[in-house]
Amino acid sequence: MNATVRIALSELKSLFYSPIAWLLLIIFIVLTSISYTDRLANVSVLQFLGQGGGSVTFGVLNNNLSGVFVTAQRNLFYYVPLLTMGLIARELHSGSIKLLLSSPVSLTQIVLGKYLAVAGYFLLFVGFLLALTATTGLFVDHLDFALALSGMLAIYLLALAYAAVGLFMSSLTQHQVVAAISTFALLAVLTFIGQVGQRIPLVNDIAYWLSIAGRAHYMILGLVTSKDVAYFLAIITLFLSLTYLKLAAGRSFDSRALRYGRMAGVAAAVIVFGVVTSLPALTTFKDMSRTKRNSLSPGSQAVMERITGPWSATVYANVLHGEATRYLPRLRNWSFRTTFERFVFANPHFEVDYVFYWAPTENERLYARNPGKSDEELAREFAEQNRLPLENFLTREEVDAIIDLAPELYRPVYVLHWGGRSIVVRTFDDRFHRPSERDFSTGFKRLLDGGQTIAYVTGQGERSAFRRGPESHQAIMSVVSSRRAVVNLGFDIVELTLDKPVPDHVGILVLAAPKQPYSETALANLRRYIDAGRSLMILGEPGSQQALNPILSEFGLTLLEGQVIQPREDYPEETVFAEFAPEGATLGFSAPGALARSPVVTPGVTALRPSGAGVFDATPILAFDPTRASLRSEGGEALDGAALGFALEREIDGAARRLVVLGDADFMTSGVMDSQESGRNANSFLLTSALRWLSHGEYPIDMSRPAPLDNRLDLELHQVDYFKIVLYGVVPGTVFLTGAGLLAYRRRR
C-alpha cells in the first residue's frame, strides 16, 4: 500500500508540474462560476418579481437544466481525456515503462497509484463545488446540504468513471494525443450505446446498463440509487482491470487469444454484476432532498402501502396514434425509469408488457398525409419504418377481445393489474403525454377503493358536463384526453334528472345554475339524497336565484338578487377577481405557494348571505374585495356579511353532510380557466379543493409536499457583481499565479 501511495503522490506531483492540470482547473473554475452567478442572478430576479418560493438549493446548484452541478457534469467530458492522456502513454513513449514493470512494484500498485493521482486531482473540482455550496449557505437559511452533497457525489463518481476509461485508453498507445482522442471516442460510445440493440431483449438490457448517459443526472437531482452507485463502481473496476491485464500482457508470453479471453471474461463478469444489481428487487434508493422531491408524495405513499404482492402494467399502444413512437422498444428502459420507477421502489414485484395494435384513430394528420390508405396499410408502414414485425400487431377486433378500448377512443393507455382487478390509466394531449404520478396513484386507489360518482342534474336548463358550448363544463369534467379533467381524478361523471331518487352510487350531486325551479318531486328526491349523508355542490348564477333560493333556504343561505360587480381597468366590471376566504383555510380552501396570490376569476357572480336559520355550519370559502365590489341590483342591497362561496357541514349520527355553494357556475368553463386575459388563476384549485372536501378527502389524491425551508436568497441582484469579480478574477487569478510560480520554480531547478 505504501508503494501505491508513493506512486500516486509522484504522479500527482507530475500533474501539477504540467501546465495542463493548472489550465483545466482554471477553466473549470471560470465555467462553473459563470453558471453559479447566472443562477444567483436568476433566482434574485425571480424573487424581486414576486415569483420563486421553491428550493434555492435546487434552483442554484441542482437545477436539472442549468444548475451548477449540471454545468460541471457537461464539462467533465472535455477535461478528463486531456488529463489522463499521458498517465501511461508518456511512460510508453519514453520507454520508462520497462523500468517501471521491472521494478519491485506490483502491477496493481502501478495501476491504482496512477488512478489515485487523478482521483486526488478531481478532489479539487469537488472542493470548489463545496466552496460554492458553502457560500450559498451564507445567503440561504436552511440550505439543503444533503441535496447539494448528492450533486457533488454525482460529479465525483462520474469523474472517477471517466478517469478509469482514460487510464485504460492511455495504456493502449504511446501517443498522448491518440490516447486523448480515443478516450473521447470511448466516452461517446458509452454515452450512446444505450440506443443499440433496443429491439432485442437481452441486448437491450446490457446496452442500457452499459450506457453512462443519465447516470449522474438523477443523483444530481438528489436521488441516489444502489444501481447507479454500483454502475460507477463496476465501470471503474472494469477499466482498471482491463488496464491491469493490458500491462500484464507485456510481462507474459500468453497467446493473444488467452489475453483477449481474460479481458472478455472480466467484462462479462462486470456486466453480469451490473445487470443483476439493476434488478428492481435488488435496488435500494435514498432521496437526499429535504422535501423528498424524487420520491412518491405522501399521498401516493399512503396508497402504495396498501398495494402488497405482485402488480403489473400492460401498455396498449395504437400504432396509428400520433404518439405511438413513444412506446417503441428502444425507449422502454427510459420509460420504465421515468414512468414506473418511483412505484417500483415502493413495491418491486412488478412486470410490464407492451401490446401494439392498430385501430381507427383521431390522428387526422396521419389520414390527411396518406389519403386512400387503409389502417392495415398504415400499420404495415409503421412496422417497416421501425423494423418491427407486423404479425406482432393486433387488429382492432383482436384487441377488442382483450379489452374494450372504444370508450378510450383507441388512444394509448396503461392498464394496471393488481389483486385480480384492472384499471385504465389514460394518456393525455399535452407535451408530457404519459400518465404522471398522480394519475397512477389515482389508478391504484381506484383498484383499492373504487371511484366516486359525480352526477350533474339536468332538465331545468342546468350547465352540462358533456355538451359542448361556451357555458359547458365538459372540458373540465369529462374530456378523457385532458389531464386536469375531473374524470381523470378518480371520479365517474354521469347526468341524471331528479324525477326519480338519486342512485345509491352517486357520491356528489351537482346543481349547476338551473334556469327553472324544481318540482316538488325533485325537491323531495333532493332532500332524501341529503338526508342519506351524501354531498351536494350548488353553483349559482345571476338569474338562478328563483330556482335555487327555495333549496338554499333550507340550508340557511340566500343568493342575493342582482350581480356582484368589480370595476377594474381593462376588464368588464362583471368579471370579479375573487380570493380565498381566510376562514376556509381550515377546510383546505387555501391555495399553496405562489398560487395563493392568484385570483379565482368569476365572469358573472352573485353573492350569498347566511340567513342564520339553517342547521348547517356555514364557512366562507370565497371572498371579494369589499373596497372594490358592489352589488348591482334594483334594490341596491349591501354586501355586508356576504361571500361568493360557502362550505356547509352538519353531522348527523356521526356522519357529515357536506355542501359547497358558489355564486358562479362559469368559473369552471374552459374559456375562463384557460383565459390568458385574466392571467394565472386559481380556478382549478378551487374546484379540486371543493371536490376533495365533498368526497371527504378521497379524491383528488392530495399530491402536496412539504414546503421547502430554503426558499429565500438574501442577495440583491447588484451584489452578484461582487461574486463575479471574485469568481471570474480573484480565484482563477490566484490559481494561475500559484501554478505559474510552481512551474517557474520547477524550471529553475
Description of the molecule:
It is a single chain. The chain is of the alpha/beta class and 749 residues long. The protein has three domains: 2-289, no CATH class; 298-438, no CATH class; 451-694, 3-Layer(aba) Sandwich (Rossmann fold). Helix content is 46%, strand content 13%. It contains 25 helices and 19 strands. The chain has a nine-stranded mixed beta sheet, sandwiched between helices. Strands 4-3-5-6 form a four-stranded mixed beta sheet. α20 (474-477) links the parallel β7 (452-457) and β8. α2 packs parallel to α7 (107-137), α3 packs parallel to α8 and α4 crosses α9 (176-192). The longest helix is centred in the N-terminal third of the chain and has 31 residues, at 107-137. The radius of gyration is 33 Å and the shape is elongated. It starts with a helix and ends with a helix. The mean pLDDT is 87.
Strand order in space, largest sheet: 8-7-9-10-19-18-16-13-14
Q: C-alpha Rg, in Å?
A: 33 Å
Derived from helix and strand composition plus strand pairing, the structural class reads alpha/beta
Largest sheet: 9 strands, mixed
Unreliable parts:
none
Number of domains: 3
Structure summary, number of beta strands: 19
Number of helical stretches of at least 4 residues: 25
Global geometry: elongated
Per DSSP, what share of the residues sits in E-state strands of 2 or more residues? 5-15%
Please tell me the overall pLDDT.
87
Distance between the amino and carboxyl termini: 30 Å
Residues in helix, %? 40-55%
